[in-house]
Amino acid sequence: MSCVTRLKILRGVAGGATRYEVHEVPFEPGQSVLDALRWIRAHTDPTLAIRYSCTTANTCKECMVAVDGKTVYSCTARLEARDMLVEPLPNKALIRDLVTQIAPPDERLQAQS
Amino acid sequence: MHLSTDVLVIGAGGAGMYAALEAARTGAKVILADRSLIGRGGATIMAQMTVAVAVGEQEPDHWEHHLADTLAAGRGLCDPALARLLCEEGPEVIREMDGWGVGWAREDGHMKQAHAPGHDRPRCVYVDFLNTGPAVSKTLRTRLIRTPDIRRVGDLLVTDLLVHEGECVGAVALHLPTGDAITIAAASVIVATGGLTRLYQRNSASANMGGDGYALCHAAGAELIDMEFVQFFPIGHLAPRLIGMDPIMWDPFRYKLGGRLLNGAREEFVHNYGATDEGKYVVTRDLATYAIVKEVEAGRGSPHGGAWLSFEHCTEAELRAAAGPVIDRLAKNGIDLTKQAIEVAPIAHYHMGGVKADVSMATRVPGLFVAGEAGGGANGANRLSGNAITEALVFGRTAGKSAAARALARTSPAASAPAFAGAVDFLMDGTPGSGPNPAAMIEELQALMQKDVGPFRAGPGLERALARIRAMRASLPAAKPPGGTAYDTALVDWLDLRTMLAVAEGVTHSALQRTESRGAHQREDYPGMDPAWQKNQVIR
């Protein structure tokens, strides 16, 4: 069994060019996709934009991304020792990398001013 | 962008949401800001268990009995006036929440109240099943949406409070989606940003709890009290990695089934530290924490640096009767408790200390108020089980009322945008992408705090931690990324690191000074309480 996960991550900003990047992450059984994204930020690339707050409990609803084309909470999506595709939510406006505009419209600054 | 309001509330957990509602009810215009989504990012929504309140529905009760238990848990260090406020007004806010439809569990027409440790009678209301925090948050979110005088703004990370002629008159914030600096003039500011458990590698709260409010208020001139008192939970989940589960989930298992604590050699060890365990796991939290920490130090920990907790003596039927659907969630994580032990370790759970305030929730800086876990003093050296949500709601309501009254009575003009220029320049200036990785430095700090400023402290470890924290703080300014970039997580990490290091220094310094063991502060080199230390430490 491989002990590495290869995450292919779609990166870029709103209105700009996007690209796929491959990051290798040590795999430990039971980890979440969010664990792997946080590992990348602390160890190889702090510029990767992600968002989350509760980390594990599926309560903050912030960490939604698309994994292999399916919308998931990255904190409860299980990491697997294989190639995995991670992309921002396709139906939300892109902000940066895996961060999309998920705030309700009446909680956004621009919408009110 | 420049905004203006009567009352600015920073932090939208239970305390901040209640504060915003009360300020609006008092007649003020309110901006409720949070770095995450409104009503989703704090600690309240993650609280699963119970809320202590002397409503006297299960058995006759009086707030004075609740106060007596709160003061006893605080080991002589509670601010009696704040503790009284919490206990005396608790019933009002819990009944108001009931009227708003939170859904406190009931039987035979009355609220059900559980008997939690440290209470003299059944006193703790809750929402089934393990749903207290989510229900409280949802109820308050719903009220907010129906209150036109409250403007909710998420994705706004407040980086500085503005003090003008000795008064707090507003705040500067980083607007995360754009990277722009936002200035907010406010006649009153309420800080409700929660505690500091993110300082620790192992914790039970959200990643937003990095002590933001402590650093903001201290920089603005407010005092911090009781910073050395961090509450640890002894058997937080450590391994194997679980998803979708609360790390303090093993407590109900322990109460119902016992559970054997084993060291890395799969031997029982708690009896070596003066307790009888016998598979019942009745040992107290502080002794269990001590025994686990000591076994790990002696090289006898479990593989991930904790202890094994085994339910392998239980049958599947017993486990199901005790934990029901949780057994299925464990199965989805590949865990069968009849066949395997799991690993546990002490985790940071709550912070008793915080910003010093009076019973109107006013700090010593005019115009600056505090609410919830961000405040300190009510819980002394140790928090009584169930008091955290009560504190959030009562202190939130009080702060909202006080802040609104001050704002409505104020006659001086609101701060104008140029007054914020210094803090805005600081936020926007910086050097792109050359410094050390702040996300890695946060992990280093968390490991350092866990190891040397954790549940058991001693002089040499505290000195070592303090020196390293100060060195990290000194290296920080040169590495600041500039503002202006949409969702720049490297900048956010840098700002968080700045906050966390300032707060960590306060915790470590206070822990080093207190040469005794009391409540949640246990010094290996100074065991036992010293009557001369029955006093609070205040950082100015």
Topology at a glance:
The complex is a heterodimer of chains A (113) and B (540).
Chain A: E1 4-12, E2 18-26, H1 33-43, E3 64-67, E4 70-73, E5 83-87, E6 94-96, E7 99-100, H2 109-112
Parallel strand pairs in A: 1-5
Antiparallel strand pairs in A: 1-2, 3-4, 3-5, 6-7
Chain B: E1 2-10, H1 14-25, E2 30-33, E3 51-52, H2 63-73, H3 80-99, E4 106-107, E5 110-111, E6 124-125, H4 132-145, E7 150-153, E8 156-164, E9 167-175, E10 180-191, H5 212-219, E11 224-225, E12 230-239, H6 250-257, E13 260-262, H7 285-297, E14 307-310, H8 316-323, H9 325-332, E15 342-351, E16 354-355, E17 368-370, H10 387-409, H11 421-428, H12 438-452, E18 456-457, H13 459-475, H14 489-513, E19 522-523, E20 538-539
Parallel strand pairs in B: 1-2, 1-10, 2-7, 10-17, 18-19
Antiparallel strand pairs in B: 3-6, 4-5, 8-9, 9-10, 11-16, 11-20, 12-15, 13-14, 14-15
The two chains with the largest interface, and their residue counts, are: A-B, 47 and 47 residues
CATH H-level superfamily title of the largest domain in chain B: FAD/NAD(P)-binding domain
Q: Quick one: CATH class of the largest domain in chain B?
A: Alpha Beta
Question: Based on helices, strands and strand pairing, what is the structural class of chain B?
Answer: alpha/beta
Helix content of chain A: 10-25%
Number of helices of chain B: 14
Q: Unreliable runs of chain A, pLDDT <50, ≥5 residues?
A: none
Overview of this protein structure:
- The complex is a heterodimer of chains A (113) and B (540).
- Chain A is α+β, with helices and mostly antiparallel strands.
- The model of chain A has no long low-confidence stretch (mean pLDDT 92).
- In chain A, a hairpin with a 2-residue loop joins β6 (94-96) and β7 (99-100).
- Chain A has helices at 33-43, 109-112; strands at residues 4-12, 18-26, 64-67, 70-73, 83-87, 94-96, 99-100.
- Chain A has 2 helices and 7 strands, in the order ββαβββββα.
- Chain A has one domain (4-100): Ubiquitin-like (UB roll), CATH 3.10.20.30.
- In chain B, α1 (14-25) links the parallel β1 (2-10) and β2.
- Chain B contains 14 helices and 20 strands.
- Chain B folds into 3 domains: 2-49 and 80-87 and 130-229 and 352-422, FAD/NAD(P)-binding domain (3-Layer(bba) Sandwich); 235-348, Succinate dehydrogenase/fumarate reductase flavoprotein, catalytic domain (Flavocytochrome C3, Chain A, domain 1); 430-535, Fumarate reductase/succinate dehydrogenase flavoprotein-like, C-terminal domain (Methane Monooxygenase Hydroxylase, Chain G, domain 1, Up-down Bundle).
- Chain B is 35% helix and 18% strand.
- In chain B, the strands form 6 sheets. In chain B, strands 1, 2, 7, 8, 9, 10 and 17 form a 7-stranded mixed β-sheet that branches. In chain B, strands 12-15-14-13 form a 4-stranded antiparallel β-sheet, covered by helices on one side. A 3-stranded antiparallel β-sheet of chain B has the order 16-11-20, covered by helices on one side.
- Chain B has helices at residues 14-25, 63-73, 80-99, 132-145, 212-219, 250-257, 285-297, 316-323, 325-332, 387-409, 421-428, 438-452, 459-475, 489-513, and strands at 2-10, 30-33, 51-52, 106-107, 110-111, 124-125, 150-153, 156-164, 167-175, 180-191, 224-225, 230-239, 260-262, 307-310, 342-351, 354-355, 368-370, 456-457, 522-523, 538-539.
- The model of chain B has no long low-confidence stretch (mean pLDDT 93).
- Chain B is of the alpha/beta class.
- In chain B, α12 packs parallel to α14.
- Chains A and B meet through α1 of A and α4, β7, α12 and α14 of B.
